[in-house]
Structures are given as structure tokens and as C-alpha cells.
Write a structure and sequence with these properties.
6 helices; mainly alpha; elongated
């Protein structure tokens, strides 16, 4: 039952208070481990790896925000179409639509709009301003004042990467939710259009098939 509900309405699991405390404790331990580490040997390799990790984390953040901007642009382009869709479905073009078919189309339309709005909310949450740590100009000045500047740079790169990880993970989770709801938006409206197009053929087929089945049953 939970799987069916998740299929129609994806949910992002919220960490409990205990889990949040564990995350904070783990970050503290990781930062202390980075601080205590020694980079006396193979410093160039360690510096290259630290830069690569820092760039990967920054790219994850940049990619999530870029996707969120694209999704919001798509949503903004869809809304003008949605304004005219109810008129097309319930206007003079379809005067013979029964109440049952109107209910089905209305339900699909509302579901698609809800999915679309929810996708926009998750995209906005992805773009929301959040704390992002980096090595600034003054940090570089202080680093080069230390006895071993390369080791200090490795330490700060790894520390900022670790401090940014939870925030970037949240952005990635938010954009995945936006994608999930936007996908369901297109599915809902695709089904709506199929129902609108196939409504009359299905009705005609039922009108022809029912008397034939009834005659066959009664004849037997």
C-alpha cells in the first residue's frame, strides 16, 4: 500500500532528531580527523585529490541549481497552456460530454496542476539560499602565512568540502523530488489528452458493443 501511495505522491523521508544529531556528530568527527591528519608525504597528490573533491562537490551544487532553473522555466511555459485547457475541454468543442467524462478529465487536470505546483516548490527549495563554505581571499593570505602552506590548503579544502556535503546532498534530494513531480505532471496531462481524444471512439464502441453482448447473452 505504501508503494502505491509513493507512486502517486513521492515523499522525501525526513531525518529524525536522532539522525540529525548523528549527522552532526559524524561531521564533527570527520572535521577533527581532517584537522589531525598529516600531509608530510605525497603532498602534491593529496592536494590534487582535495581540489578534485572540492570541485566535484561544487559541481553537484551547481548542477542541481541549474536543473532547478530549467524546471522552473518549463513550469512557467506550461502555465499559459493550462489557462486555456479547461476552455478547450469544457467549451463548445465538446458539447456532448457526459458528467462522468467531465469528472474524469477534471480530476486528471487538477492532479496535473497539483503535481506541477509541487514540482515548482521543490525547484524553488533547491534554489533557496543556503550556507556554502569556501576558501576566500583572506583565507589564502592566512594559509600562506603558515609554515606548510600546501598542507594547510589541503586541510581547508577537505574541511570546506565536508562542511558543504550535507547542504549539497539536500539540494540533490530536492531536485530529484522536483523531477519526480514534473514527470508525473507530464504523465497526468498525457493521460488527460488521451482520454479527451479517445473519449468519443470509446463511447461509440461501448454503444455498439453493449447491444451485441446483450443480444448474445439473451440469445443464449
Amino acid at each position: 500500500m505504501i508503494g502505491v501511495f509513493e507512486f502517486f505522491w513521492p515523499r522525501l523521508s525526513r531525518p529524525t532528531t536522532v539522525q540529525l544529531e548523528d549527522q552532526a556528530s559524524k561531521q564533527t568527527r570527520d572535521l577533527q580527523l581532517i584537522k589531525d591528519a598529516k600531509w608530510d608525504t605525497h603532498t602534491e597528490i593529496a592536494l590534487e585529490c582535495a581540489r578534485a573533491l572540492h570541485e566535484q562537490e561544487t559541481e553537484r551544487k551547481r548542477s542541481s541549481e541549474s536543473k532547478a532553473s530549467i524546471y522552473l522555466a518549463v513550469i512557467a511555459a506550461i502555465f499559459p497552456v493550462l489557462v486555456s485547457l479547461p476552455k478547450d475541454l469544457y467549451g463548445d468543442e465538446l458539447p456532448d460530454m457526459s458528467a462522468g467524462w467531465q469528472t474524469v478529465l477534471l480530476g486528471l487536470f487538477i492532479l496535473g496542476v497539483v503535481y506541477l505546483v509541487r514540482s515548482g516548490i521543490w525547484a524553488f527549495r533547491t534554489l533557496a539560499v543556503s550556507t556554502h563554505n569556501r576558501i576566500d581571499a583572506t583565507d589564502i593570505v592566512h594559509l600562506w602565512g603558515e609554515p606548510d602552506a600546501n598542507s594547510a590548503l589541503i586541510r581547508d579544502l577537505l574541511a570546506t568540502t565536508r562542511m558543504n556535503r550535507d547542504g549539497v546532498n539536500a539540494k540533490v534530494a530536492f531536485i530529484k523530488m522536483a523531477h519526480a513531480f514534473l514527470l508525473r505532471t507530464f504523465i497526468a496531462f498525457a493521460i488527460l489528452l488521451l482520454v479527451a481524444v479517445l473519449r468519443q471512439p470509446i463511447t461509440n464502441l461501448v454503444d455498439v458493443a453493449v447491444p451485441m453482448v446483450r443480444a448474445a447473452v439473451c440469445g443464449s
